[in-house]
Q: What sequence folds into this?
């Protein structure tokens, strides 16, 4: 029989974001009280505009309150007692915040674009709140300026799953715009290759555009790639045939990473590989096992697609087995569902982002933004970046473009204010 624990865990914990769900619950009350669904058949009732301004005021007040509860949590963090904040009681899974969140202003901003308050039948949704949180984060970063480092995930964030950053990508001019403003850029991807050529093949649109751009040569150096989550570092180099140069590990590894033992890496990957082989057999998956120096995974046989449930089963099984192993406590790892594959990598994106911060001379988490698509608490690889910096959770490459435009628009507003 399915226990309560399993239902709670399986249905909620790893598939929901508790902070977003909590805010959604708070906004449901003004929606119920102030939306006017009957107005569609009562033409003499309140107009949509009247209703929307009332609803907006109520929603925005709540967002202001949440903003203050987060500020209180940050005050507790600073005092070394984050577990004692009110927010921690309300949302136990909440971690540390690197900056306050301008939630009130961000709600108004998104409401002007998404017309959340004008809706009479559809309450504020997960996606509405996710986007408000992203806007709130970039507002706070820009206001606290300057934004020193932006790290991007690859698949689904910069290009569609399994595709490449081709020259026509609208993200490219926007990334160059960031670099012109002095922001450093890191691509922190799970894709783990030892040769520059493979990264060039995935990212050539951006690399070629940077090469021919009028950005000064010294600033062109402000693009690096951290591949395999936190295993391989390449930096932009105009003279290299693939425009990328391998950076030896000794030049960028953090002290803690030097303690990772080769024997532990092999042991962890062996356990992961055995678990994958088992699941492939049990679930009759048409899979190919891929073992690399710092990763092991399964990809579908040509022409096959895994269903979501099978991928989730695979990743949750492997996560559990590694959590229970001794080596899984000695060594950080990341097991994730890549959409049509499952991989276990040594290290994770928190180390990838920390390595970028170190590479660029010690940039702080409160001056760094990681943009990614995988922020669920299990089976997702961008989630760990939250330990290293502020984050924005996007759902597709078009949202990344929108976010970059928002940063630029907010930046211009900020410049005008300080002039
Ligand atoms: P990301 O979204 O940029 O982090 O890339 C994730 C995808 O990279 C995975 O879903 C895989 O398809 C691909 N990939 C290629 N090599 C590796 C590897 O060594 N580890 C993990 N993922 C890899
Ligand atoms: Mg991704």
A:
């Amino acid at each position: 029989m399915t226990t309560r624990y399993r239902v709670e865990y399986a249905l909620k914990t790893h598939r929901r974001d508790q902070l977003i769900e909590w805010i959604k619950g708070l906004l449901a009350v003004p929606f119920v009280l102030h939306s006017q669904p009957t107005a569609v058949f009562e033409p003499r009732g309140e107009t949509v505009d009247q209703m929307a301004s009332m609803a907006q005021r109520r929603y925005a007040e709540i967002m202001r309150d949440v903003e203050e509860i987060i500020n209180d949590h940050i005050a507790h963090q600073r005092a070394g007692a984050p577990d004692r904040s009110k927010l921690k009681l309300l949302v136990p899974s909440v971690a540390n915040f690197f900056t306050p969140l301008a939630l009130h202003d961000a709600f108004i901003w998104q409401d002007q674009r998404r017309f959340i308050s004008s809706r009479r039948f559809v309450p504020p949704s997960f996606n509405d709140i996710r986007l408000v949180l992203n806007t709130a984060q970039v507002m706070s970063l820009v206001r606290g300026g300057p934004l020193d480092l932006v790290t991007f995930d690859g698949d689904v964030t910069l290009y569609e799953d399994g595709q490449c950053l081709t020259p026509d990508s609208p993200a490219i001019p926007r990334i160059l715009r960031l670099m012109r403003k002095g922001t450093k850029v890191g691509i922190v991807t799970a894709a783990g290759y030892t040769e520059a050529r493979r990264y060039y093949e995935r990212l050539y649109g951006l690399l070629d555009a940077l090469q021919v751009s009028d950005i000064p040569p010294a600033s062109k150096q402000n693009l690096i790639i951290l591949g395999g989550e936190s295993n391989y570092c390449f930096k932009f180099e105009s003279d290299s045939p693939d425009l990328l140069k391998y950076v030896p590990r000794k030049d960028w590894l953090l002290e803690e990473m030097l303690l990772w033992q080769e024997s532990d890496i092999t042991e962890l990957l062996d356990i992961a590989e055995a678990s994958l082989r088992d699941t492939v057999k049990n679930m009759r998956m048409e899979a190919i096992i891929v073992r690399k120096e710092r990763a092991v995974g399964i990809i579908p046989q040509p022409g096959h697609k895994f269903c979501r449930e099978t991928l989730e089963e695979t990743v949750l099984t492997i996560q559990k087995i590694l959590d229970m192993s001794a080596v899984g406590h000695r060594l950080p790892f990341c097991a994730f569902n890549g959409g049509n594959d499952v991989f276990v990598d040594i290290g994770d994106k928190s180390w990838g982002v920390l390595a970028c911060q170190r590479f660029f001379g010690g940039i702080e988490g409160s001056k760094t933004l990681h943009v990614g698509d995988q922020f669920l608490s299990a089976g997702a690889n961008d989630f760990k970046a939250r330990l290293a910096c502020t984050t924005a959770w996007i759902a597709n490459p078009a949202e990344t473009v929108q976010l970059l435009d928002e940063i630029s628009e907010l930046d211009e507003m900020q410049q005008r204010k300080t002039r």
